[in-house]
């Protein structure tokens, strides 16, 4: 790790860039951890220069500190003209674009740098205070952070939205146009990454000491295009114009190793040598809290190799590919989120990504721990200073990596390292889908991470010893079951110490070979003595040396006896060569951490009773629930200012933004006609914005008078976008069979909006996208139907699109097969914004319905406890489909939606068994319940007074689903961290 640090330049004015952003190792974000005083644009404070010890090195560096122990003074006034001056300064003196024209894009970058000036002060003050107090800190490791646009969030959290709007107006721009220039950071895909970002917001807002760690993907997942062929993927270009919110920490880097071999040194320690070495470089992004100076850090790793790894000789010889090979191998690790893993190369790349995240982050965490501890370093203190949360199974390698560092580099014993690791690491499970509970090829991992496989093998053996200790050996069938379910290594030979427990007893009778052996060793004192020995003793050898024939015969008898003994072992102890040997990452997470949590009450029960039931029986206190939440700042206050103002007016303050329990006060006014009028006006304004968005992104024109019916989420069969679109097809078919008068009487106008990405290699999901767009092309051009029904697929769905769609939505679909959605978080965002949900009793839907009231939630479908029985019924050929379902499939196959052959898609809903058939996700089973529930939706929407009341009660009852509540629970029950208020 490099530790070069230079002092920041002393600035002439308070509105120049306030500090450079170098620093070393685990040091502060300014040089040497120094703090430039001031509160951004809140005002000026005096600075004095002192010699200060650098956190990054032992050198003295120059750094500015304030009179109050290096911490900035908070002031509470600001002038929009000063902000305008600062923005103009960044545009003129930090130009990223040509000076001729102050375009909206240039204005965005200058504005972002201006805001970063303010954030840097609090950012460094936060970091330095954590260091000074040596507090316990949580580190959230996630492969995804779906941040969304940073500008709106940052100025909102700094309470400077109005001032920045006025400043930009003075410069000839409006804030909305400028913020729209910011591309969404392509660091995630769906709910996993958005949850992580909500958590970071809440951690900063609640003043908890915590950092996020992730990877800096150059292209993200992909940019989605919708063409006549459905979804097409191209590389995301979010970094092409630069990312003004990050600070590249070239002085903070760590070596990460792959391949090589493990040897034992003369010191008795294991050494991982040779192989391929890369460098992980830190990129820091500020995470400001709301109405607080706390500004935490999201540290993202990029990957490269040192300059000397560029093969200049090969380049000059004309072999340019070879010259750049090491750089390419390193840099491609962070090119794409979730690279396709159909090929061996793709699998290796994904495993490299996961290990890079774990290794670089843990090295950084440990360096920070050692720096803070100073001369009083005691590794037993590590779990009382560090909490590591693994967001799903992607960071599982944290467990063997922490063990490796503690044992191989810090000199701890296995037992000491295991105790520290288990008390430090915790695991959040986000799925019950078997394919998402990661299993890695042991052979690939053995080649790529040989030392980690050794550690995992030992953890696996110790786990098996614990299982044997708990269940004993009397009931071998039970013991086999537990070992099969709980082992970390699957389809791998049992170690000898465990295998010997599964030896089949043989009849005790003496074979002819045994009698012959007795004669051969007759000179020995006892037969028992020979049978206990593994090698021939001298006197035994003398007897056998009488003739060469006798020696050979004795060896043959020994070999035959050994073969007989091996044949007595239960086949259970051996691997099946026809099946792959794998590492079950979820099992390793459960074994290696002190806490396992699900993300909704129903999900956590499934985790305990089904997914990890054997582990729950062994360690019941490890398991707990932490129902997800979303930040009310981004998902109400900032994305829906119209509704937020109404809420604050009727409640009497905006305290609800920090304390969502106060939303319940709206219930008093749920029937108030004045509130209804204002509420509907806010919804109308938001719908008008979406009318423009739809026109711009798809070319379709929709009516704001229609109900906006929305399903936006990752495209997956279990989320059942297929059920939604088949319901729309049924609706369309019935409309076509009616007269114009009957249609208007029978159906309310709807705009049915879809959004979400199908993974590039998920063929069935891509068929669903194609089907939705084909239905849209037919329905939207049908003059008979007009505005009574429109179908829209919004391309390249992301956080910014969600921020527009969610406030405008009136009905939101959360219709996954019961028991398959861990939680969901978009359901919470919709409910907060007064949108009414239609859904199954799945994930957080269960708790949302409990909170908002059964009468304010449209429920349909089979329940989780019924699913296994329903699939069994299907396999036995007992399922009888509803005639309406058969009618819809026949209508699709008739070709009404174009020439594309939908036999494969419809065929997945047919048959009684087989991969890709038999309607595994129960679309056909729930279809009649779904369309009947949609009729109730139409009926309720006709009564706008009733609908508005339902909408208000959804918002008023959504307080539980703030991520602030979730984070308080994590902090108390899992991480054991306390808020730290900067003085």
TrEMBL record:
Protein species of origin: Urochloa decumbens
UniProt main location, coarse: plastid
Keyword set, alphabetical order: Allosteric enzyme, Carbohydrate metabolism, Chloroplast, Glycosyltransferase, Plastid, Pyridoxal phosphate, Transferase, Transit peptide
UniProt cross-references to PROSITE patterns, sorted A to Z: PHOSPHORYLASE (PS00102)
Annotated positions of the N6-(pyridoxal phosphate)lysine modification: 829
InterPro entries the UniProt entry points to: Glyco_trans_35 (IPR000811), Pyridoxal_P_attach_site (IPR035090)
Function: Allosteric enzyme that catalyzes the rate-limiting step in glycogen catabolism, the phosphorolytic cleavage of glycogen to produce glucose-1-phosphate, and plays a central role in maintaining cellular and organismal glucose homeostasis.
Positions of region (Disordered): 531-550
PANTHER family xref list: ALPHA-GLUCAN PHOSPHORYLASE 1, GLYCOGEN PHOSPHORYLASE
Protein name: Alpha-1,4 glucan phosphorylase
Gene3D superfamilies, A to Z: Glycogen Phosphorylase B (3.40.50.2000)
MF terms (GO), sorted A to Z: 1,4-alpha-oligoglucan phosphorylase activity
Source species, domain of life: Eukaryota
Family: Belongs to the glycogen phosphorylase family.
SUPFAM superfamilies: UDP-Glycosyltransferase/glycogen phosphorylase
Enzyme Commission numbers on file: 2.4.1.1
Cofactor: pyridoxal 5'-phosphate
CDD domains membership: GT35_Glycogen_Phosphorylase
A single GO cellular-component term on record: chloroplast
Catalyzed reactions: [(1->4)-alpha-D-glucosyl](n) + phosphate = [(1->4)-alpha-D-glucosyl](n-1) + alpha-D-glucose 1-phosphate
UniProt-annotated location(s): Plastid, Chloroplast
One Pfam family hit: Phosphorylase
